[in-house]
């Protein structure tokens, strides 16, 4: 923990949905849900208007539709998110050489390395307001929430306190008082499972946690986790802001206090880890082709096994299925003390992959698969992708251009008809027109490559 509030955390508000509202004027101020729109789709994010109806990230789209039937349900446009992200990260790098992006819409900035006259609360507050205004202007209207504090932990907590479009600076010395009434899940690493274990021990708030001594915490949550929790409950966090951290793989692993021998428990754990990995991949806009499991046996020999998919995935069921299959080939009868799942061979999502779920469903159908059929397993021969892509080419939200009517976006498609709303970020809300899905005057639209800003 630093003596001054010099760690800044910036997080864009309702990021994907905000980009959609920027580019689709008729959706401004309205509920918008971005994510998989097919039968097994999941919500990536929702505009604040949709959140009022209880729509949340990671909820099934089915559930979101029942909570907010009048929302616009859009498939994402990843190129637009990456472009907005690059603009924001560029602005932050102008502010300080020490910028650590955590995902497309989120980064830490070390203000101690910025060119500020001092690091007093008033100075960093004013600076953050300028930065927020610059982000708003440079991105064409996106809002960012900012938190500033004496550590990464506090800065991140602070940026969430006054969302959306907020700024919270936690004055040095007030950190513990801020944390005490909060639920323990505010602490990084305290997920639902640890939160529940603590709750059963009567520990609900950070104040409760602060009252527990280290030995008891270690007994409750294990050695590795216990020490970290003990420190964070006291706002002790000395993690440095590290520039340009680059993830080559995303993984999740856990060690066990006693050796595991129960196969179904191991599978259950792998499935949960696969879920964590998939969530982190999608949060970072990544997907990967190689799935690896790591297994440490009772005698500390450590094995890893991996398999590579024909195309990148960020799907939890797919990663889980492959991980379980890899485990099936190992003899674990002597007991296992560590299990982990990782995904590597990471690629930035390309636009088609964002639609992976719908594409996957189409593939499943094309392959005559029943069951979950959501992704392609390595041994499955791929059908003609051009046909699939062509058939489902009009994604809700996708950019299109009409020879006479100009640019717009797909409002909906089905039964051979495509409905387009003709508007862009620079126009007022525009009219809606329908076309036959194979109307030769209607084309997918892509931003000309030379206009793309340089990737950081
Ligand atoms: N995202 C995703 N799947 C998730 C969570 C997030 O695809 N389970 C994507 C969509 C979000 C973006 O990452 O727009 C950023 O995630 P945030 O958690 O910062 O969420 P938002 O920016 O959407 O909202 P908030 O205003 O709460 O930051
Ligand atoms: Mg955000």
Automatic annotation (TrEMBL):
Molecular function terms, GO-annotated: damaged DNA binding; DNA-directed DNA polymerase activity; magnesium ion binding
InterPro entries (alphabetical): DNA/RNA_pol_sf (IPR043502), DNA_pol_Y-fam_lit_finger_sf (IPR036775), DNA_pol_Y-fam_little_finger (IPR017961), DNA_polymerase-Y (IPR050116), DNApol_IV (IPR022880), IMS_HHH_1 (IPR053848), Rev_trsase/Diguanyl_cyclase (IPR043128), UmuC (IPR001126)
Reaction catalyzed: DNA(n) + a 2'-deoxyribonucleoside 5'-triphosphate = DNA(n+1) + diphosphate
Active-site annotation: 106
Domain annotation UmuC: ranges: 7-191
Site features described as Substrate discrimination, chain residue numbers: 16
PROSITE patterns on file: UMUC (PS50173)
SUPFAM superfamilies: DNA/RNA polymerases, Lesion bypass DNA polymerase (Y-family), little finger domain
GO cellular component: cytosol
Cofactor note: Binds 2 magnesium ions per subunit.
Binding site for Mg(2+): 11, 105
Cofactor: Mg(2+)
Domain of life: Bacteria
Region (Disordered): 428-456
Family classification: Belongs to the DNA polymerase type-Y family.
Protein role: Poorly processive, error-prone DNA polymerase involved in untargeted mutagenesis. Copies undamaged DNA at stalled replication forks, which arise in vivo from mismatched or misaligned primer ends. These misaligned primers can be extended by PolIV. Exhibits no 3'-5' exonuclease (proofreading) activity. May be involved in translesional synthesis, in conjunction with the beta clamp from PolIII.
Subunit composition and interactions: Monomer.
Name recorded for this polypeptide: DNA polymerase IV
Organism of derivation: Nocardioides flavescens
Phylogenetic placement of the source organism: Bacteria, Bacillati, Actinomycetota, Actinomycetes, Propionibacteriales
């Amino acid at each position: 923990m630093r003596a001054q509030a010099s760690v800044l955390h910036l997080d864009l508000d309702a990021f994907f949905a905000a980009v959609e509202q920027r580019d689709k004027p008729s959706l401004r101020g309205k509920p918008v849900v971005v994510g998989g729109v097919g039968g097994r789709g999941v919500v990536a994010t929702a505009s604040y208007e949709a959140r009022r109806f209880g729509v949340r990230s990671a909820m099934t789209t089915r559930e979101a539709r029942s909570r907010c039937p009048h929302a616009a349900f859009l498939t994402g446009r990843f190129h637009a998110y990456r472009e907005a992200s690059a603009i924001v990260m560029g602005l932050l790098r102008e502010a300080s050489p020490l910028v650590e992006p955590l995902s497309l819409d989120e980064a830490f900035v070390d203000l101690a390395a910025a060119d500020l006259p001092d690091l007093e609360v008033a100075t960093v507050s004013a600076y953050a307001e300028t930065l927020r205004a610059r982000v708003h202007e440079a991105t064409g209207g996106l809002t960012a929430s900012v938190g500033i504090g004496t550590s990464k932990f506090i800065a991140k907590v602070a940026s969430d306190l006054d969302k959306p479009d907020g700024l919270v600076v936690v004055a040095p010395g007030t950190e513990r008082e801020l944390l005490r009434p909060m639920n323990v899940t505010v602490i990084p690493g305290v997920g639902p499972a640890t939160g529940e274990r603590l709750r059963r021990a009567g520990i609900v708030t950070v104040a409760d946690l602060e009252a527990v001594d280290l030995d008891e915490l270690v007994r409750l949550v294990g050695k590795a986790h216990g020490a970290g929790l003990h420190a964070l409950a006291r706002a002790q966090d000395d993690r440095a802001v590290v520039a340009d951290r680059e993830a080559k793989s995303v993984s999740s692993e856990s060690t066990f206090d006693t050796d595991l021998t129960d196969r179904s428990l191991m599978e259950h754990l792998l499935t949960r880890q696969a879920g964590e990995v998939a969530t982190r991949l999608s949060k970072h806009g990544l997907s990967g082709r190689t799935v690896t499991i790591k297994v440490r046996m009772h005698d500390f020999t450590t094995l890893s096994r991996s398999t590579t998919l024909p195309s990148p995935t960020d799907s939890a069921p797919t990663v889980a299925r492959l991980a379980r299959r890899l485990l099936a080939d190992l003899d674990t009868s002597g007991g296992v003390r560590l299990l982990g799942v990782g995904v590597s061979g990471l690629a930035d999502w390309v636009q088609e992959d964002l639609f992976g779920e719908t594409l996957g469903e189409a593939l499943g159908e094309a392959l005559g698969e029943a069951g979950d059929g959501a992704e392609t397993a390595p041994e499955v021969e791929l059908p003609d992708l051009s046909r699939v892509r062509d058939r489902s080419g009009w994604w809700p939200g996708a950019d299109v251009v009409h020879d006479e009517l100009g640019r717009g976006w797909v409002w909906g498609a089905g039964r051979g008809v495509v409905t387009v709303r003709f508007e862009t970020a620079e126009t007022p809300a525009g009219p809606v027109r329908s076309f036959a899905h194979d109307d030769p005057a209607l084309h997918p639209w892509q931003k000309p490559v030379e206009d793309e800003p340089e990737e950081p």
